[in-house]
Design goal:
Blueprint: H1 10-19, H2 27-34, H3 42-52, H4 59-68
């Protein structure tokens, strides 16, 4: 397979290293997984989640949603 050399900053390199699932996983594999093509239909979305699994919810975001519930809107009625 053909290759292309790119330059990335140190902080991006560190982020790529953190995204590796295994120490021997290539950056190409990480980028291919993280930068997948957009899903255009509900069927594609279902197929994607069937293959990859549904991501876990971020506890911080869930707390923020729960705290915001029950408040009145500031919009004019």
């Amino acid at each position: 397979m053909a290759t292309t050399t790119i330059s990335i900053t140190t902080d991006v390199h560190e982020r790529l290293c953190k995204l590796r699932l295994r120490p021997d996983e290539s950056f190409s594999s990480v980028l291919r997984r993280e930068l997948s093509d957009p899903l255009e239909t509900c069927g594609e979305l279902l197929d994607h989640f069937a293959a990859v699994g549904v991501p876990r919810a971020d506890p911080k975001l869930r707390r923020g949603l729960a705290q915001g519930r029950g408040r009145r809107s500031r919009r004019d009625a």
